[in-house]
Every structure is written in structure tokens, then in C-alpha cells.
Amino acid sequence: MSSKPRQYPAINPSFPNMLHGGDYNPDQWIRTPEIWDEDMRLMNLAHCNTMSVGIFSWAMLEPEEGCYEFGWLDTIMDKLAAEGARAVLATPSGAWPAWLSKKYPEVMRIESNRHRNLHGGRHNHCFTSPVYREKTQKINRLLAERYKDHPALLVWHISNEYGGECHCDLCQNAFRDWLRKRYNHDIDALNLAWWTGFWSHRFNSFDQIESPAPHGEHSVHGHNLDWRRFVTAQTTDFMKQEMIPLRELTPNIPITTNMMGTYPGLDYWKMAPELDVISWDNYPSWHRDDRKTWQLASDIAFVHDINRCLKGGKPFMLMESTPSHVNWQPVNKLKRPGMHRLSSLQAVAHGADTVQYFQWRKSRGASEKFHGAVVDHVGHEHTRVFRDVTEVGLDLEKLSPVIGTTVRPDAAVIYDWENRWAIDDAQALRNGRGEKKYEEVCKQHYQAFWEQGIPVDVIDSECDFSGYKLVVAPMLYMLKPGVAERLTAFVEAGGTLVTTFFTGYVDQSDLCFLGGFPGPLKKVTGIWSEEIDSLYDTDTNGVRFSVDNELGLAGAWMAHTYCEIIHAEGARVAASYTTDFYADQPVLTVNDYGKGQAWHLAAMTEYGFLQAFYGKLAEKLTLLHSLDTELPEGVSAQLRTDGSTRFVFLMNYSEEEKTVAIPEKATDLLTGTECFGTVGLEPYGVVVLKI
Ligand code: GLA
Ligand code: ZN
Prior knowledge:
Layout lengths: L18 E6 L8 H13 L4 E4 L4 H4 L9 H12 L3 E5 L7 H6 L26 H18 L5 E5 L11 H14 L4 H8 L26 H29 L5 E2 L1 E2 L8 H4 L7 E3 L11 H17 L7 E4 L18 H11 L4 E4 L26 H15 L12 E4 L2 H9 L12 H13 L5 E4 L10 E4 L9 H10 L3 E5 L21 H4 L1 E8 L6 E5 L10 E13 L3 E6 L8 E8 L2 E6 L1 E3 L1 H15 L13 E7 L4 E7 L5 E11 L5 E8 L4 E5 L1
Parallel strand pairs: 1-2, 1-9, 2-3, 3-4, 4-5, 6-7, 7-8, 10-11, 10-12, 12-13, 13-19
Antiparallel strand pairs: 14-16, 15-16, 15-17, 16-20, 17-18, 18-19, 21-22, 22-25, 23-24, 23-25
Bound molecules: alpha-D-galactopyranose and zinc ion.
């Protein structure tokens, strides 16, 4: 096992509570200060203890250039402190006042079509503009100077949901400089990496390079990849410059920025090292018509796990979630009774030490006036949603013993942003939005563990593999430098690796490996992948296990979407295709390598295959389970522990009552009842066992 910590301090040790609260916009209610007092009363009633303030407050803090008005924020910070509550204080760069755009048009982003946006909206500033950097740093400094010793200041919330990209001249120059550095000022190195011999795309100098554009260059994959890397680097650089005054003046206040799950635009693994704590905004659409509740729950668990892993298992913040519904999904369905509690505690189960909302109070006007909130337009506490939120507040108070605990799983699934960029860009397989299915495949493999109650880390390919017994690398098309070597060493030392179709095709520049796929993983997997067949939705193939396969797998399963045609070159064949011209050729292989084994699954299969395969593999490898019990369909178990006390969250994501056998003496932290033998879970019910 790894030597990573088992228990972390509270997010800010000066306030060792589960944080509960949300985005609070008192600046929208400055004309009615009596509402501020009412907010404080309601906050206490709802058992909320933390409010995120200042997220979009720039125009209220600096109404004219250089004229500041902090009075209203002083009042709010004082009111929060007087109630014993805390503030997650934001820097306001997510949106800016109109005077700034008028005077300094360079702050307004230029889109990839090379048109400059007009003033308005949010999350649309240039990330290079020296003026925007100077102005944000100035206001951040003033905030830090003013509140550095304020008792309410708990956490810094940098900007809001960084995203998008700017293609202005300043950014073009920054991109060229970034490329010069990456390629050591050697344009031929860039030409090779981008394979610019294709279509006469060769460059003579870095000055000739521009960012990708829909009406210009967009078909050079190395170029696209490097642009995306640059966007992450430049956004991170912008974030770091926002942090300078905060680090200087408030070295003990932890810093976060709210991320957006698997948002494709930013590689969060590159941002995470700069932050003290990870936070993310989670808006699943529960109760859908196309997915079972528990299937969606597994997908969300996958993203929670990414957030826990971004800082090596350290508890994260659920910065935003809705207490009821959002207003931007195709269908904005209400959370059914019990779902608010279940989905909130799901975050905690996977490592969150907070449950926070967007938003505290519904605004009267503009585009978010019908977005769910703790306090509705009616203005009082006698609403279903307010009662749901209060219930979560009470639960969180009982969950203080869980603060700082984590989980150290035996299994990890690799989900890699750069790999995703490369796969999505590839003109291959099945083209069209969402057709490549990388994220879907990762989530499917993950689900096979989730439903068995086996905790999993979801990691980047550059993470350390050595603490795991099992590493699953679905569709790891791109192998960055050292990854194949580290995966090989992992297997050699006794680890089990699972790879799939579309693994080991290209290097970090999206240049294909020569000499056969899976490239540098050929040796450890003991296979050669000769071709890959992309199927129509109506096409299928079959998977038939070899009689003497070593996991004792039986049954017949369907293969679909992608069928790779592989040759065993040292590996043993555990299953073969049943039809088409590649019938009887291998679809599942296993190779002994050093002290470990490498499995390769050459096709996308129906889920039942993954259930069977990972069920047996988990048994063979004796993977850590959250609880030693059989879980009925729809129920998940998730562990948090400090190494001695175990907290097991049993969650029923189904619309029926379920019963779970409890093998050890335990207490339900939420009700204080002793559980032994069995425990009943009502629809959407949660039990938190303390063992
Ligand atoms: C995002 C933003 C919030 C709000 C919510 C609405 O997460 O950060 O400001 O717009 O979406 O769901
Ligand atoms: Zn720009």
C-alpha cells in the first residue's frame, strides 16, 4: 500500500466542521438590507455555516475605476462572523464592470473565429491581457488586505469556473512563446511533432504560427493538442497571478477554484498542484428517462473520485450543487423526495468535506431567476426545498467524525484529459459528437467496480501506479513519455493491468507508433493489434470464453461498436469473437509478465461482460471492498477511513426498498442506531455505518 496520508486536517483547521452553504449574492439585495438580516436568520435555521460571497461582485466593489466600495461586504462579513459562520470569499474576475471594457477593450475575448466579443456575459475575458491581470490582481490585493484578519474568512474561491479560450494577438504571441519554450526554439522539432509535411503545412519560423481556427488551420492534430495544452497553461498562469497577493497576505487561508467535472477545455491535473483544495460544481439531471438512477449515480461517483484523486486522496469541496433543480438542462426536473439528501451525501461518501449550493437565494431578475435555491421567491422557510436543505445540514453536523478521512483503493481507472483530446480529435473510429465514447467506456469499466462496492481511484496517466493492485487503462490511445515504461514496471512488480481496444496508438504529439500497436505496450500485453473495426449501432459480434480460461469465466456476451483484430504474441487467449471474418480470433487475452499480468480486451462489450470479468478479477486479486457484503442492484457502498475507524456510506439509488447484510457490528452515524445482521434502506435512503 502507498504511504499517502490516511487522515487530513479539516479544509481550514480553524473551523473543523463539515461546510454547508452556498453561493450568496447579497450585493443583489443591497437596496433591501432587511433581507440580509433575514438571510442570517434563515441560514441558521437551515444549519448552514458557510457562504460563498463576492463571486460576481466586481461592479459593486469598484463601481468606477479606482473608486472602491467595500462597505456592503464589510457588513456581510461581520454579519457572518457574528453568527459564527464563515465566508468562502471569491475573487471577482469571473465577470467585470462595463467601465473596464469601455476603457480597455483588450480584456474582451476574441473567439476562434477571430471576432472580439462585446461586453457582457461572464467567463469571457482574455487570459493574457496585462490590463486584466493588473486589474484583477489589484482588486484581489485590496480584498486580501481588508479581510486578512477577518474572523469570517475561511477559504479563497478564485474566480469562477475558469473556461474557454482567447485568440487575440496577445494570446497568439503568448502561444508562440509557449511553443518556443516547448520545442526549445527549434522549429524543425515542431514540424516533426506536428507532422507538417502533410498538406504542405511546414513552418519556417514560430512567427508563422497561429492558434487553430474553424476557417483556418484545424486539421493538424499536434497543433490542436498543443493549443489545448497552452490554454490550460495560460489559464493556470492567470490563476496563479490572481493568487499572488493572497499567498502573500493570507498564507494560511486555503485557496481553491471551482472546477466543472470532466469539462473538456482544461486539464485539471495541471491546475491542481497550484491549489490547496479541490472544489467542483456538480449538476446531474436526476430522474431521467434514459438512465436508471443508479447508473447515473455511478457516473457521478466517477467524477467525485477524480476530484478526490486530483490531490492524491485529499478531501475536496462540493462547491456547487442545486438544492432542487437547475434552469439550463433540457428538462429541469425537480429532485424527488430523498434525492437531495442522497446526492449530497454521495459527495461526502466519495471524499467531500462540504455540501454547497448554487444558490442561496433566487435572484429576482436575469437568467438565473428560476434556478433552484435554498430560499425561494416566496422568501420564507416553509418550503419543501428548505426542509430538504435543513435535513442535510443536520446530517452534516453528525458527520463531523468523517472530516479529513479518505480511502486508499486497490484499483485505479485511468481517465486522461490529453488522451481524451487526442481521441476526440482523431478522424477515425466513429466520427461525430460523443461517438468516440472514451468517457463512456471509462465510466462503464468504473461502474463494474462501483456496483460491487469496490472503491476506485480515477487518475491521470502521469500518476504513480505503484500503490495499486489493479490499473485499468481503457482506450489509452496516447502514451505520454514514460507511461508505457511505468505501466510495464507496474506489471513486472506484480500489478495487474487491463488495457482495451484503441490503446497505445500514438505518442504525446499524436504521432502513431511504428512497428505495431499497442506500441510500447506490445511487450507487456503480449499482443499485436492489426486492425480495428468500427461498427454501426445495428452490428454486433459475440464474445466466447475459452473453456479453460483462467478466471473460470463462462457465458456468451455481445461485442459492439469497436472490435479490434488482435494477435496473441505470447499472451494466452481467454475469449474469442464468434462471428464475421474475424470469428475465433482473440478478443480477451492475458499475458504473464514479471510477477504480474496484463489483460487486453479488444472490443467494446455489453456491460454484463465487464461485470463478470471484473467480478472474477476482484476476487482473484482480493481487492479492497468498502464492506464485505453482497450489494443489491442500485445500492452502493463507499468507504472513508482514517486507517482505524471505518465509515461506510450505504446508498440506495433505486426506487425500491433494499436490504443489505451487515457483517460487522456498526452504528449508523445519522440515526445513532446499532446495525448488525441486516439494514433496510428505503428508496433513496442512506446509512452511514461507523465501524
Ligand atoms: C455554474 C456557475 C454558477 C451558476 C450555476 C448554475 O456552476 O458557477 O454561477 O451559474 O452554474 O447552475
Ligand atoms: Zn487574449
